[in-house]
Target: SDR family oxidoreductase
Amino acid sequence: MRILVTGGAGFLGSHICETLLAQSHEVICVDNFFTGSRRNVHHLLAHPDFELIRHDVTLPLFVEVDAIYNFACPASPIHYQHDPVQTTKTSVIGAINMLGLARRLKIPIMQASTSEVYGDPEIHPQGEGYWGRVNPIGPRSCYDEGKRCAETLFFDYHRQHGIAIKVARIFNTYGPRMRPDDGRVISNFIVQALRNEPITLYGDGSQSRSFCYVDDLVDGLIKLMGSAPLLTGPVNLGRDEEFTVAELAALIKEITGTRSAIRMLPLPTDDPRQRRPDIGLARRELKWEPSTSLKSGLEKTIAYFEAALSTHNDGELA
Ligand code: NAD
Ligand code: UDP
Model:
């Protein structure tokens, strides 16, 4: 198959491109390089089945493909809040453009949705049936509400136009090829630890997240795309083991052996208190199990950052 991956030069997108090529698919990677970079797909550029196109998904795209992974959208709070209007446009207009393409070509399309659609949840762990608690007017809303609206569009195109859709609700995922300046918690803590700089703990660190290693996530995404058409989702994909942010900092300190101290900073507005997926649906329907423990995933990610920081400066990696 020839497969379009939007946001393909980003963290998750580059791993998806790599896996699809390894499975002998042709890949068209589309990215505007806002948070992604050519460096993430540099090793794929010489591959005869790989094509890279600089393009913004808020503009229509005309290509001939057999399936779409719609992953374009900045995912780190500092980046998606940098230009919140563009973030909403990317989710909403980007979804309309990619769904239009899927409709014309009569092909399946996957949406990279997010655990952020649950907002600051009152239900714990979060199952797909929970409708969420999202502030529509706060600094995170451009991302959360943009992704919620994209889900609405996916289901309306499915009901109205019969498009085959797959909606993945992705929980916090980490691994190699996150940018050192990505701003999300795992890359921040690892880079700070490796540089013996203070580890920036927001709030008192008692808020929780559940962290999934990228290889496990990509395995789940590919299983979801290959699943029966009836399984539209939304399907939660993440690892159902929960850690406080303070526990995460302690684990990264232990693995790296850093001299870094902890620096407490204010908790950002609307930062969710707790988050853990119920992944019963993915286990049952996809036979999916995220098998990489946080410790072993962190060890691989730390090894990546050690090598990356010693060979490149930040500007080159960003
Ligand atoms: P990322 O920032 O590394 O990747 C996003 C990619 O999209 C980048 O390459 C960026 O340049 C590109 N992009 C942004 N706006 C675009 C536009 N208008 N047109 C074309 N390309 C554009 O982030 P990521 O972690 O790889 O996230 C990828 C997708 O997965 C996003 O849609 C994100 O919302 C979703 N997601 C990620 C996580 C996670 O934990 N990593 C969790 C939930 C959802
Ligand atoms: N966080 C932190 N220090 C950092 C970056 C993030 O304590 O340097 C916290 C953040 O406040 C949140 C959690 O870590 O409670 C996860 O943040 P991230 O931005 O990675 O993901 P999200 O909040 O979108 O789940």
